[in-house]
Amino acid sequence: MSDSGSLRGAYTPGRTATAYRKPRKQHFGRAGSAIKMAACSISRVMNHLLIQLGAFAWLSESPAWALSNAFDVREASIDSVHNALFTQITTCREIVSAFIARVEEFNPTVNAIISLNPEALSIANKLDERIAAGNVTGSLFCIPVVLKDNYDAVGTNTTGACLDLANSKPLEDAPTVTALRNAGAVILGKANLHEMALEGLTVSSLGGQTVNPYDKTRTPGGSSGGTGAAVASNFAIFGTGTDTVNSLRSPANAGSLFSFRPTRGLISRAGVIPVSFTQDTVGAIARNPKDLAVALTVMASVGFDPNDNVTALVPPEVRGRDYSASLYGGSLTGRRFGFLDGFLNHTASAETTPVNDVMADMVEKLKGAGATVVNITESIYNTVTLAALDVQIYEFREVLDAYLARPRLGGSPRPDSFAELYNSGRFLVIPGQSGMIRSSLVSSTANTAYLDSLRKIQDLTQALDATFVRNNLDALIYPQQKNLVVKTGSPSQSGRNGILAALTGRPVVHVPAGFSPPSEDAPIGVPIGMEILGRPFAEGLLLNIANHIAEKFPMRRMPPFANGTVEARAYESVPVIRPDTGNIPGVYPIGVF
Questions:
Q1: Helix 448-471 / helix 392-404 crossing angle, nearest 10 deg
Q2: Does residue 20 carry a pLDDT above 50?
């Protein structure tokens, strides 16, 4: 679409976008009602019909009506969408169409979306029918959501962004996807990821290289980088992701976003392409804490799932919790945070100094708000040492074999096992992952080294609990990454700090903490984020802290490239999105490891 065909402008909070669309009769009724209320001091009854007819005639001839006050989806929230819907400012179909239009306009730049749901508009029509019938239920009613493309969702393929899984077609939803649909969400489409969720660069054989919305020379983090780039660019209200080591928090760090990694067992992982039974979790990425809390409430509502037995660990008092209620009350005053000094890189450089400066500023802000920040210098909090306990290489082959062998997974041709996939030549393994794949082919959970790692993870978990008790902490805080998110073509997403939560199963909420100084490649700087790690099942407390931080120190900013309105489009059907695989850096060969 050419710029001459768009009505575009910089986003101002609270501003309503103008975009051409055909008038709808229900708006004439609302306008007439508004005029009626203004004139009610003259006559509530006798002038009612005349005023409505006059309003109708004036509006139908007015050029101002053709340029109507359409709902602006930029930085939209669950509340703002619902307000627009239930006051008849817009329809569900128009909301879904507006997000699809943004994907069409801006996805060629960031390459975040692998596919759109062909049923998205039909689902929106049914939701509009429910509004007309007065049958509106669900906390996510008409909320467009993108799924990381390792979630099973009927009507879309589940590919893990791998060419060899391009035809993999689930016959049932993941339980979390069912929960989202039951709450009224519209599954808009599938987002790219680092292939098979194994690293943080978000490059894949099926989806190509996703780029950072704030600096197109950099990666978007990962492995849920497609979701992060999509949510940052306002392609949906929120999106889902998975996290084996860093993968929900890394894209939030790179995209000025909020995310959560839940306590192990809180949310079922069934129906999601797995990597590690011990370390895998599922969660969401959003632009504000309130939407994040709603997403957590819905996803956790699955409860106990016999297809994921760690969900049995959830205490009865936690089941069915409404995390939105946790946002309110309390303050930062009196909170005690432990700052993990070992999760900084104290060597000054253009990549590390901005992170250190942002974190130092955040610590001072927290202190100024009445919190106490304790410097934690225990030697166990060293990511290099902790990385040696990562158990993915022992579990990956076994859990992937089990996923691919499920009778409720269809599609053909597709691989039936880990070995078949990684002998197909239709995959992308970055050079730094080659050793892991080779080890996974021969390693198993019967290895003595695996059992030794599990014992050391238990020791680490006990030491972490002791740190909380000894220092009387509410939470630990630290940067998600010691350096700015890396450039495309890098060997790995180095410097990330997510391993502590991944090994111990402790919950984390990620918040935007600031930006690096602006540069030619990053007009407003590169986003920098902070993790807030808590005790088991302390998601409510962490969200409360995150909400207070977001209100007192708002850091979320929209990427400039996507900060423009997009002309309203009347779609007959959902367009087909074709990801750019021609942008894969040459250092990442296809089909070899």
A1: 110
A2: no
